[in-house]
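Hi everyone,

Forwarding the result from last night's run.
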Amino acid sequence: MRRRHFLAALGGAAVSWPCAALAQKALPRIGFLADGAAASINSAYQIRTIKQGLADNGLIEGRDYIFEPRFAAASNERLSEALRDLSGIGVSVILAEAVASVRAAQRLVPPLPVVMIAVDDPVGNGLIAGLASPGGRTTGIATANIEIASKMLGLQRSVLPKAASTAILHSPTNPGFLDSIRTRAGGLGIAVTPIAFQSRDELEAAFRKLAQKPPDAVQIMLDAQTSDLMDRIPVLALMHRLPAFANTPEFAGFGGLIGYGPSREHIYLRSGYFVKKILDGASPAALPVEPPSRIELWINQNTASALNVSMPASLLASADKIMG
């Protein structure tokens, strides 16, 4: 009798052990709401660097979490679908890289923690109460394109002192810096022509328009929805012999003349800190929103030579990276 009871108990334990093991292996899911396309070079770079940032904070994919990227591809409809999907699979936290994406993620029911990745002016855009005390369930890394845009005009003046006109290429969803840039440009004697673009076709059309009356330079304000086109813009700019400046240093790595702004690499790496804190139980409201830790200047000397642009020695000396 005792033997039968022992075997019965053993059989019951054998059934329960796999269930317990499965429960122990249930890993948190980290959602990434990318505004670009799944197949783009930019999206692949983002995912690779975010995972490295998670690893730097002790989180290894497959052991500590499951990564769930979803791609809006600059489409509001796809953005809504991606959010419904992430909510449906039970992610523990969502990484988002655009104002519209963060705002949409904040409306999810039940609410989820949201980590912003280089979102411009989150206080002014009503995403958080303040940088030091964000409140709610949102934290992360902010950026300031207005200040960067103003600095880029100063760089243009130092490289092209006789330039009297510039075209500002920007996303139609992110025009907030234009008034400030016009004021700064007016003080420098530079006429500004803003042109909105979002898709590859719109970008090609923008450069065809510029070819009719070429400006002296082009300033590109890249954001989450237009960064997928970072590799195409320098090709078009060089084709039309237009010196091109952009608000991210990596732009020069793709062939743009000058890239100046927050290091995307460091921002993506830093996002892992916020995710780790939240998964460990920290409230996003208690995690201050941070500015970018590094602003970098990259210069492409090969492009400068192709455009017959002479870089000031002082600017070359201050550059973080020089290509060519």
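Confidence is low (pLDDT under 50) at residues 1-11, 13-23.

Cheers,
N.
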